[in-house]
Amino acid sequence: MPDAWEGAAREDLDMGDVAAVAEEVAGQTSHMNEAAAALAREKGWAEPQKYNYDVYNASNKPREAGTEDGAAAPVWACNAAKYEWKEEYGDVGPRNEELEKMLFRSDYHNRAGDKFEHLREIKVTAETTHQPQPVKSFDDAGLHPIMLENVKLCGYAVPTPVQAYSIPAIMNNYDLMAVAQTGSGKTAAFLIPVLSKLMGKAKKLAAPRPNITEGFDSSLQGVRAEPLVLIVAPTRELVTQIFDEARRFCYRSMLRPCVVYGGGPIRDQRMELQKGCDVLIATPGRLIDFMDKPHVLSLSRVRYTIIDEADEMLHSDWDQEFVKIMSGGDTNEDADHRYMMFSATFNKDCRELARKYLSNDYVRIRIGRAGSTHLNVSQQVFYTEDNMKKQCLYDLLLAMPPSRTLVFVNSKSQADLLDDYLFNMGLPSTSIHSDRTQLEREDALRAFRTAKSPILVTTGVAARGLDVKNVMHVINFDLPSCTHGGIDEYIHRIEGRTARIGNEGLATSFYNDRNDDISADLVKILIESKQPVPDFLQSEVPEGELTFDDDTDNEGDGNGEEASGDAYGDAYADPATEYSNDTAAAAVETPAPAEKVNTGAAW
Ligand code: ADP
Ligand code: MG
C-alpha cells in the first residue's frame, strides 16, 4: 500500500482518464464568459492557458532533462540536471557555467524579501545539555569551502535563526529536532551542514561509482544506490523542492543527489539511482518500494536520516513504514548514524517520535512559538455563505492587483470545479491535486512558478511546503476543518506560502457557520498575530490569557500544563539559550501576548 501513504493518505494518486477530462474541459471552455474575461484583461490579469493534453498523452517517451521553464516537452522534476562528478576531478570539480545559471540564477528562485528582518527578530530557544553556539555568519560556520561558495551562489547572506542553531548542532554530531515556522529556511538548515560535513569524506564513504560517459547503459553498467544521506518528506512537490535545493548545495562536489516519489516515472528514477546516489530524497511510499529492491537501493551506508515536515508524517497510519525507514540504515549498527527531524509544529506525537528515534542527547531548537504566524502576513476573514463563495472569490481577485495567488479548497472535486469556473471567467488559473497525474502536477506548478498561470487552486495536501517566489495572496476558499488539520493546516497554508523569507503577503479566508469548529483557534491566531478579529467572531475572543494547547512540551495530556520533573523535563533542565541580540541574526524578544511555556525545564 505504499502509494496510499503518499500525501498523508488523504489523497491518492489515481491516474484518471486524462482524455476524458480533456474533452470535458474543451467542452467547458466554450462557456467562457466573454464579458468577465474582458474585465479580467482590463484589470491586468493574463490570459488563461489551456491545458495541453496532447503533450500529456504523448508523455511516455523519455524527456529532455534540465529545462526549467518547461517550454518544450514537460520534464520530470526527478530528471533535472545535476552536477556530474568525474573520476579525474580532484577534490573540487570545475565550474559549469550553464548549470550554474540554471541552478542559481533562475528568475523563479525565491530570494530574501524586505521583511527578512522580521524573521531575524523572532525568539529562539535551543535546549540541550550541550548548547550550540549559534553561528553568526556562514563564513564562521566551519563549512567546507565548496559549500561556502554554493551558499554564496544561492545568495544567502546570513543564516536564518534555525540555520544559526542547527548548523553548529549538526557540525558537532548531534541528533536534532528543529521546530520552526514554515518559510524559515529549514531545508538549508539541514542540507548545508550535512552535505558540508560529507564533502571532505565522500570519497572514503561513498559507494563505488560508475563512469558515466556517452552511451552509459544503466542496466549493464549501473550500480546499486547506497546513499549517505536519506531525506524523507511527505509530498511529491516537497521532495522535488528539496532535491532542487540539494542540487544547488551539491554543486561541484562529488555528492550526487537523487529524488524518488510516487506518480513519477519509476524507470527514470531507477536509472538515476543506478548512476550513483549519495543523497536520496524520497516520499515514503516510493522509498519503501525501492527498499524492497535491495539490488537497486541499500540504506546500509546512510549516515544521516532526516525527516522533514515530521508533523505531517504523523497524520496517517505511517507506523510500520516509519519503523522500516528509520531502521533501514542500521544493518551495520553504525553508531555514527545521525537522525534529524524538522517540523513546523511540535505536537505530542512529534515529541514521542523524537524520543523514540533520536539519541538521548539530541538538540532541540525552537524558533518562536510553534505554530505561530509571521507578523508580516496580513490576515482577513470574510463571512461568506457557501453559495456565494465563487462570486466573492471572483470579486476579490478582480479587486486586487494581479499577483500570484493560491486558492485552497478542501476537496479534489472542488479544486476542479473552481479552476474551471475561474478559467471560464477569463482568469489565468490552474490547479493541482492528487488525482492529477504527476506530470500534470509538475506542469501546473511550473506554470504557477513562472506566472503563466498566476492563480493556483489546490488542496492543502498537494501544496504542503511549497516554496514559490512572490505568492502575494493566499485565499482559504474553504477553511480547513478540524478533521483536516484544523488550525495547524491554516497556519501551514498561509504562513508557508506568503511571507516566505520575509516577503510580505495577504491571507484571506471565507468563513461561515460550517467552520465554527475552527473558530476559537482562528481567533487566537488572529489575536496573537495582531490581526483584526471580525465582528462575527468576537464571541470567540477568550477572556484573560491566551493559551495554546499545541504549544506545550509536557508529556501529559496536552492540556496546557507545564511539564513537571519527569524524565523528559529533567533531561533538559539546563536553562534555555536565548538567541542573543548581538548576533548577526539578532533576536529581539517579541513574546506573544501570553507566552506560556519557554521556561526552564519545560522548554
Ligand atoms: P521551510 O522549510 O522552513 O519552510 P525553506 O527551506 O523552504 O523553508 O526556505 C524558504 C526559502 O528561503 C527558500 O526559497 C530558500 O531558498 C530561502 N532561504 C533559505 N535560507 C536562506 C538564507 N539564509 N537567506 C536567504 N534566503 C534563504
Ligand atoms: Mg520545509
TrEMBL record:
Transmembrane segments: none annotated. It catalyses: ATP + H2O = ADP + phosphate + H(+). Pfam families: DEAD, Helicase_C. Residues 136-164 form the DEAD-box RNA helicase Q domain. Keywords: ATP-binding, Helicase, Hydrolase, Nucleotide-binding. Its EC number is 3.6.4.13. InterPro entries: DEAD/DEAH_box_helicase_dom, Helicase_ATP-bd, Helicase_C-like, P-loop_NTPase, RNA-helicase_DEAD-box_CS, RNA_helicase_DEAD_Q_motif. PROSITE patterns: DEAD_ATP_HELICASE, HELICASE_ATP_BIND_1, HELICASE_CTER, Q_MOTIF. The keyword Ribosomal protein does not apply. Residues 542-564 have a biased composition (Acidic residues). Residues 392-541 form the Helicase C-terminal domain. Residues 534-603 are annotated as: Disordered. GO terms for molecular function: ATP binding; hydrolase activity; nucleic acid binding; RNA helicase activity. Residues 565-574, 583-597 have a biased composition (Low complexity). A motif (Q motif) lies at residues 136-164. Belongs to the DEAD box helicase family. This is RNA helicase. The lineage of its organism: Eukaryota, Fungi, Dikarya, Ascomycota, Pezizomycotina.
